[in-house]
Each structure stands twice: as C-alpha cells, then as structure tokens.
Write the structure tokens for this entry.
Amino acid sequence: MKTILGISAFYHDSAATILVDGKIIAAAQEERFTRKKHDSSYPFNAIEFVLKFAKIKLSEVDQIIFFEKPFLKFERLLETYVAFAPRGFKSFCMAIPLWLKDKLFQKKMLFNELKKHDNNFTDDKKLYFSDHHLSHAASAFFPSPFEEAIVLTADGVGEWATTTVAIGKGNNLEIKKEIHFPHSLGLLYSAFTYYAGFKVNSGEYKLMGLAPYGSPIYEDKIKNNLIDIKEDGSFHLDQSYFNYATGLTMTNNKFTNLFGQKVRDAKHEKLTQFHMDIAASIQKVTEDIMIRLTKSLKEEFNISNLCLAGGVALNCVANGKILKEKIFNNIWVQPAAGDAGGSLGAALALWHIEQDNPRNVNQNDSMQGSYLGPEYSQKIIEEQLDKAGAKYEILKEQELIDKTAIHLSKENVVGWFQGRMEFGPRALGGRSILGDPRSEQMQKNLNLKVKYRESFRPFAPSILEEEVSEWFNIDVTSPYMLMVAEVKDGLKIEMTTEEKKLFGINKLNIKRSNIPAVTHVDYTSRIQTVSSNINSKYYKLIAKFKEKTGCPILINTSFNIRGEPMVNTPEDAFNCFMGTELDTLVIGNCFLLKKNQNIRLKKDYKNQFELD
C-alpha cells in the first residue's frame, strides 16, 4: 500500500487530500474545521482528518507534497518589484519580511508543522513540491472520465503562470503553453470584484450573480483600454490601470477615471445599475476570452475532451457558454477548482507523472461525487444533539424521506445533513439547505431570512439526472453544479412590456418560470444533476418530492449563512438551525422541528461571521 498526502496552504482555501494506491480516499478544506471562511493557515485539522479517515499515521505516509513552489513565487515577487520600481515600494516593504521569516523557509516550516501530527515523523526527504498550475491541471485531468483531454487552467496567479494549457493522455500530463503574471484573467475579474465593493477571492461569484441584472455597456471600454485580446484568446493587460502587481489595492485612479465612479464602499453605498452594468460587462469579456481560447485550442490540438480547473473554472456561466457553443464533445470541471483542489492535484501528479503509475479511467469520474469529507455515525449525531439540548425524533429512512418531502412541499426550509461532507465550494446534497423551487417567495426569503445575504443572489436546482433535459436546455450531466443552462421555453413566463422596462434589482420579484425560485433573472439556472448511484438518499428525497408535487427539483444551497463556512459537524448544523429561520433539520436519522426546540437555545447568529 502506497500513500500520498497532498497539502495546499498559505494563500486561500487551505486543504489536505490523501491517496491510497492512487485512489482518492479523503479530502477537506481547513475552513470547515476552524469555522474561518477561506482559512489559509497550515491545514492542521484537515490533515488530521484525512489521516484518521485513511487509518494511517503521518510517519507511515510514503510521500507528502505541497501544491506549489515557494522559491519560484518569491522570484516572481522580486522581479515584479524590480520591473515596476519605484512603484510599489510600500507593499514590497510589507511583503518581504514575511517572505524572509516564513515563506522562503517553507520546507523547514512545513516539516516542523508536520511533526506536530506525529513525533515519529522524522524524514524530510518525504517532502516534495509541485508546480501550482500543474497541481490544478492534474486535479482536473486525472479524476476526469477521459483517456485524453485538453486541460485549461485559469486563475489569479500561481508562481508565474496565470493561464496554462496542458495535454493529458493516459497517465501523462504536460503543460504546453502559459500566459504569465501580471497578465491574468482571474486578477482582471477580481479587479472588477474589488471595484464593485466585494471581497477579492470570495466575492467573484457575487459579481457573476449580479451580471444578469445589467447590460454589458462597458464591454468595448474594457476591450479598448484594459485588455488586448488576440484572435486565439491569449491576452495582455495594460498595467497602468491596475495596482495589484505592486500595490495594496486591485485598481488605481486611472481605472476609476475610465469608468467615472470610485470604488464602491460596500458598508455605506448600495449597489446601483452602474455596478450591475459593470458586472455584466466583465462577465461578457470573460466569456468571450474563454470561448476564444477553447475554440483555438480545439483547432490546434484536435482533441474532443476539455477539462477545466483554477478559480476561473468556477465561473459556471462561462462554462455553460462553452458547453452551448459545442466546441468540445465533452467537458469536465474539477469540483474543487480553486486552490483547495491543488492538494488533490499535487498528490495525483506525483502518483501518475513522477512515479509513472497507471491510471484507471472511471466513466463517471473518480471524485465519488466529491463526497470526500467527514461522516458522522448515528451514535455521534445523537450524542452531539443531546449535548446541545436538541429535541428530535428518530425515523427509519423511508419515513424520514417521506416526512421531509411533505415539509418541503409545504414550503418549509430544510437543513439536510447526510453522509460525507463535500470537497469544494458547492453543497451537493451532503450539507445542504433545501426548499421548494415552485415558490415565488422562496428565493427572497432564503436570502434574507436564512442566509442573511443580498437578495439578488440566485439559488441552484438539484434535479433527478434523467429529468434534466425535460426542464433545462442541457443534455449532459452536471453533478457538481458547474454548468449554467436556460430553462425550457415551455416553462418560461415571458415578461410583459411594463416588466421589461424595469431596471436592475426591480426585476428580481418577477416570476420568470414555473420554478421561479431557481430561475435567474436571465432565465438560467446553475444545475446539479443527482444520480441514484452516487447519492442515493438525496436522490430518493427528490424522487419522493416529485411523487408528491410532480416537480423533480429541489432548491439546493450550502448549509451555512453568509460569511460562514459550510457546516461540518452535527453541532455546527444545530447551531446554524437555531441561528436562522430554518424550519426543519434532518440529520442522519434524526428529524428536528424548530417549533419543538427550547426557545432559549436560539442564537444571535447573524453577526457571528464577518461579511463575505
């Protein structure tokens, strides 16, 4: 038995993954254990979990691999400051002491941290370092259902690379092309995230959700000033508008002057039509670049499968556009496409590329539905609920599913905690909040009363896999909620002339389809297809809901409030249940109603987590 531990850390979304004989056994993000969103610290708890799950001590692990090369990153930092000097001296002075203290000596630091797991771990020769973009590409190709594929990775920045193209065949993967820092599609998108008043590295999906409320009226301004896009989709950014290479902010005064408004102060300024149009414009530019890139890659390499990774691959709207263009026969996106997935990719790259181990291609994929996190026995669930003072009844599975489906059909909001926790940013039916998609009020209520977040944020439908093409314009599976498609014409409710005149957020409350709670303002949905052989309990629940209502769909959003990581333990789930207006909690075989709980256990939950 050969074991590899993969680690990603120190930028955002620290995580750990363990492989046994090349098989993915367990993977989790540190944030789920520390309850600190996007936790970037050394993933002590995540490592403890994956080791325990694999029933192995750290000293028994054969190799440990870190997802990037710190020295190359330091080289990029120094060269960037020299190239832009004297600009950026202030941020240079802030960054260098940290690098000299910790990051340059990351091997020693990692070794010291690793020893805390196991005193018998003494061999630093077991420690390896991967390349950031190779880790991303490996996370996308090796678990994919393809023998051969083009792998496109796009994110903020790794060591030097911001966009890479790799070719995967069998157990081999080779990077063929790179675009280097400071030219970055991820950082361009993040600059607009910052400009619209959202947090960089966590607010990008808000910008994507806001885009359909606006019109891309600044598209030409972006293309004529900020970015030069070549025919093949490669690009060059005019650095005179940005501050991220050397400064402490993403954009500068020249950027502000170009668009005519200052950076939005999220605490004091509401979103306006301007911000919606800005969001629509950068979204359109991103989609155009991704479509140009993928078209030119298909032409150049003539391979019919595409894999995507890196933070930009979480832009499910752009993914949906690539799918709609039918450039490739098949597309597969790594569900943990951001830096967390680097821990997985680094381990797989070491196993397949460096050690030349064969690869068995799974026709679905080898991510096991991305249910790779902790699982809690019925005994532990009951112990944690008892300790918290919860009132619950224990039901057999069939009764539990039946009762939950009835509650959902009556427009109750249900916290659903079953099986293993998901790896990656999406709740996929393990740690989910569920609702009735037919309800006209559900989207608004879920945002304002349960998630405590902006009312414009869309929700995803979970649909029985075999029903998807009956309800949406998509004929492929989308198990990881990373594809967006339009609802079928027959389900759409056309807007009246008066409604079409409405601007921005006023469009929110217009009923757009027979499933209004999961139909975004542009008639699209971010789809999760649910298969009976990957998550049978969740599948049975949706099937039972269909039996009662005729609708094979549930709203699925992550089990947390804004600013909080997804719940991990039964205790986390009960805290969130008591701190929000969730009606029902279904956890293992335990069924909890809010009205039966001790009122004194209600929590002031809303202000516990920092705004994301």
In short: Residues 273-301 form the longest helix (29 residues). The mean pLDDT is 93. Residues 179-333 form a domain with the Nucleotidyltransferase; domain 5 fold (CATH 3.30.420.40).
